[in-house]
Amino acid sequence: MAEAKINEIFDSIQGEGLYIGCRQVFVRFCGCNLLCDYCDTDFQGGEVYSAQELAKKVSDFPLKAVHSVSLTGGEPLLQYEFLKEFLPLVDAKIYLETNGVLYRPLSEVVDLTDIVSMDIKLDSSAKIGDVFNSHKKFLEIVRAANKEVFAKIVFDDKIRDFEIGECAKLGETFEIPLILQPKMNGSEIDVKKEKILEVFDKFTLKYPNTRLIGQVHKFFDIK
Ligand code: SF4
Q: How far is the CA of 71 from the centre of ligand 1 (A)?
């Protein structure tokens, strides 16, 4: 019987990306395979659940009133064996929030998801090296499974033209919306306004299906 450590389970609004403002039940998994410089997620601690226990806990929320159940973290795909047992027990749409690099685990569970919200990580802001190749393999799997997908890109003043070109290439190849998200420091935007507009201009000239969207839950001061 698979088990996973869950940091928290809560009912809130989606604060990022294409489904901003939608009500979701969030299941936050502990642990991550990356160590992004700007990470502000507290996913230590938490409780261990079996797939059945977690499904029961999730079903206690008003699932008819929510858009979907968001698997977030940390990195939920680290628990792909658990997800194989848990997801078939959930009577709601599944929205996977992922850093977009664990393509092998993804291939095990992608058919059990409905919407994939992935990151495209930039070394200039995350300081984890260039991982475009992993993102490409990840997107190949999402597309082969015919799942809805979009990619969030957290950037700051140091973004390189090379990175903009690679993101646009991924967007074009896989025909996905790109969501530009200025890096935050707490509830403050950590990128100069002129730089935000310059980056948005460069992106849209290369790849028009790009949107500039901040993190609204931080303005409301909710999770
Ligand atoms: S992928 Fe997300 S959770 Fe993991 S370290 Fe980066 S920002 Fe934090």
A: 13
Residue nearest to atom 8 of ligand 1 (CA): 39
Spell out which residues line ligand 1, taking CB within 6 angstroms.
Answer: 32, 34-36, 39, 41, 73-75, 99
SS3 23: strand
Closest CA to 167 of 205, 197, 141, 195: 205
Domain boundaries, the chain: 3-220
Helices assigned H by DSSP within the chain: 51-59, 80-86, 103-109, 123-126, 132-144, 161-174, 193-206, 216-220
What average pLDDT does this structure show over 67-74?
A: 96
0.70 surpassed by pTM: yes
Question: Which fold does the domain 3-220 belong to in CATH?
Answer: TIM Barrel (3.20.20)
